[in-house]
Specification:
This protein has a four-stranded antiparallel β-sheet, with helices on both faces. A three-stranded parallel β-sheet has the order 1-4-5, sandwiched between helices. The chain is globular, with a radius of gyration of 21 Å. It has three domains: 47 residues, Transferase, Pyrimidine Nucleoside Phosphorylase, Chain C (Transferase, Pyrimidine Nucleoside Phosphorylase, Chain A, domain 3, Up-down Bundle), CATH 1.20.970; 244 residues, Nucleoside phosphorylase/phosphoribosyltransferase catalytic domain (Pyrimidine Nucleoside Phosphorylase, Chain A, domain 2, 3-Layer(aba) Sandwich), CATH 3.40.1030; 90 residues, Pyrimidine nucleoside phosphorylase-like, C-terminal domain (Aldehyde Oxidoreductase, domain 3), CATH 3.90.1170.30. The protein is α/β, with parallel strands linked by helices. α2 runs parallel beside α4. The chain is 46% helix and 15% strand. The structure holds uracil. The site of uracil has 10 residues, from α9.
Length: 426
């Protein structure tokens, strides 16, 4: 088999067979196919697309390129969740304790921030002492004993995806539905859970900008899950606005804690509760309405916040953060971003807001950069809110004073105003 022929076949719009896909993945991962040929094939796939069978093959081959986590030691159905990535997206930190408090074990492997989006692992590491690099044994033991554990993905979880994602990232081939679906689902299949809920983001802060593409991506991932024996459900949620008011690691953990205390922002609680209920539903705990009621009870009774406390304690974190937010890393500088307009916020370019938070230190500029856990943006106003000249729209937090002005310049570009109240998307 020759890589040249495979590239040519896809370039001309033909379907690749399973052996050709397997050859590409195994030989590329073994270092026998150079980056330029792999990049050419990815671009051909990007432009020509892949059908359902090709996407399923790519997914399973990438999933099997490394460890397949075996969760069979943990009794019962195991649940997992994945978001396609957003700004202010702290839903895992709310959903996972709720689902565990409802009796479904959550064995979750999460990632770090990607581009303008944040990652659950970075957020959890904002909790003093919290260890996400736990061994497989500790991970399994914690899920068995407490019903919950969240760990970083090991280097050997779908390594083919890791290598291919790094190439896609620098060759403008990320935003393709089949490639995103297979990338995400390969990691989910390798992570071993039986039931999966997917939060597919749509809008300016998401990888998929249009609702139509987001629905297609959702359907494609659900199909892959179902075809490989994992019951999967997807919810398409709005990312044309940051989720909640907090963007940045410590700020987001605090907001998630508030949500688990039933005091979080409405949009964040709505999305997190919906995802949790859908997951409980496919775990066969009841009808959707009954599952929604279970979710509310888990939060209102305090069982969900106790689950988060258990998770933090088991993974070496300081559980006192739950009632004392001053224990989180504190920023040396706080700057209030003020409205220059009278009117309404018409829209927020959410990816630009993610970049502004990254600029303040909340994300990584390069793979090697370290994160400032205290950095980020706390909004006071969002799309649809009325503002008057001089009102605080957001507070910026950072340990690098020189980052405040570039972050404000990004917010100037991201936030648009209008005179009459705009329509708000559900
Ligand atoms: N997240 C992933 O894990 N993979 C993609 O391709 C896009 C987002």
């Amino acid at each position: 088999m020759r890589m040249y022929d495979i590239i040519e076949k896809k370039r001309d719009g033909f379907e690749l067979d399973s052996e050709e896909i397997r050859y590409f993945i195994t030989e590329y991962c073994s270092g026998n196919i150079p980056d330029y040929q792999a990049a050419a094939l990815l671009m051909a796939i990007f432009l020509r697309g892949m059908n359902e069978r090709e996407t399923a093959d790519l997914t399973t081959i990438m999933a099997h390129s490394g460890d397949m986590v075996d969760l069979s030691e943990i009794p019962g159905i195991k649940a997992d969740k994945h978001s396609t990535g957003g700004v202010g997206d702290k839903t895992t930190l709310i959903l996972a304790p709720i689902v565990a408090a409802c009796g479904i074990p959550v064995a979750k492997m999460s990632g770090r921030g990607l581009g303008h989006t944040g990652g659950t692992i970075d957020k959890l590491e904002a909790i003093p002492g919290f260890n996400t690099a736990i061994s497989r044994e500790v991970f399994i033991k914690n899920v068995k004993e407490t019903g919950i554990s969240i760990a970083g993905q090991t280097g050997n979880l779908a390594p083919a995806d890791k290598k291919i994602y790094a190439l896609r990232d620098v060759t403008a081939t990320v935003n393709n539905i089949s490639l995103i679906a297979s990338s995400i689902m390969s990691k989910k299949l390798a992570s071993g859970a039986d039931r999966i809920v997917l939060d597919v983001k749509t809008g300016s802060g998401a990888f998929m900008k249009s609702l139509e593409d987001s629905v297609k991506l959702a359907r494609e991932m659900v199909k892959i899950g179902e075809n490989t024996g994992r019951r999967t459900v997807a919810v398409v949620t709005d990312m044309d606005i940051p989720l909640g008011y907090a963007v940045g690691n410590s700020l987001e953990i605090i907001e998630a804690i508030e949500a688990l205390k039933n005091k979080g922002p409405r949009d964040l609680m709505e999305v997190s509760f919906e995802l949790a209920a859908r997951l409980l539903e496919i775990c066969e705990l009841g009808t959707l309405d009954e599952c929604k009621q279970m979710v509310r009870e888990a939060v209102e009774s305090g069982r969900a916040i106790l689950k988060l406390e258990e998770l933090i304690e088991r993974q070496g974190g300081n559980k006192r953060v739950i009632n004392d937010y001053s224990l989180f890393p504190q920023a040396a500088y706080k700057y209030d971003y003020i409205s220059q307009y009278d009117g309404y916020i018409a829209s927020m370019k959410t990816d630009t807001i993610g970049v502004a938070s990254l600029e303040l230190g909340a994300g990584r500029e390069t793979k090697e950069s370290s994160i400032d856990y205290a950095a980020g943006i706390l909004f006071r106003k969002k799309t649809g809110d009325h503002v008057e000249k001089g009102d605080i729209i957001a507070s910026l937090y950072t340990n690098k004073q020189e980052k405040i002005s570039p972050a404000c310049a990004l917010l100037d570009k991201a936030i648009h105003f209008c005179e009459s109240k705009p329509e708000i998307k559900p």
